[in-house]
Amino acid sequence: MRIFEVQKDADGNWLVCDALTGEPACIGGKLCLGLSMDEADHLALILNCLESRSADETLH
């Protein structure tokens, strides 16, 4: 299961990335970069919930 986290970039913007690889998250072919802190927090929460549900479904 992947875990997503929020990081601040050198320009002061926020991004959502894979906590293990450090690679930016990608949704619909778009990287999750250049976000506000609120956008990044919200997006990371959604992605982590989706990953958790996906992992639960594979266990049952």
Question: Would you give an account of this structure?
Answer:
It is built from 1 helix and 4 strands; from the N terminus they run E-E-E-E-H. The protein is α+β, with helices and mostly antiparallel strands and 60 residues long. It has one domain. It is elongated, with a radius of gyration of 12 Å. The two termini are 15 Å apart.
Write the layout of secondary structure elements.
Layout: E1 4-8, E2 14-18, E3 26-27, E4 30-31, H1 37-59
Antiparallel strand pairs: 1-2, 3-4
The quaternary structure here is: single chain
Gyration radius from CA atoms, angstroms: 12 Å
Q: Helix share of residues? A: 25-40%
State which percent range the strand residues make up.
15-25%
Number of domains: 1
Q: Mind summarizing the main beta sheet?
A: 2 strands, antiparallel
How many helices? The count is 1
Distance between the termini: 15 Å
Question: How would you write the strand order of the largest sheet?
Answer: 1-2
As residue ranges, the low-confidence spans are none
**Rounded mean pLDDT score:** 92
Order of helices and strands: EEEEH
Structural class: alpha+beta
Inertia-based shape: elongated
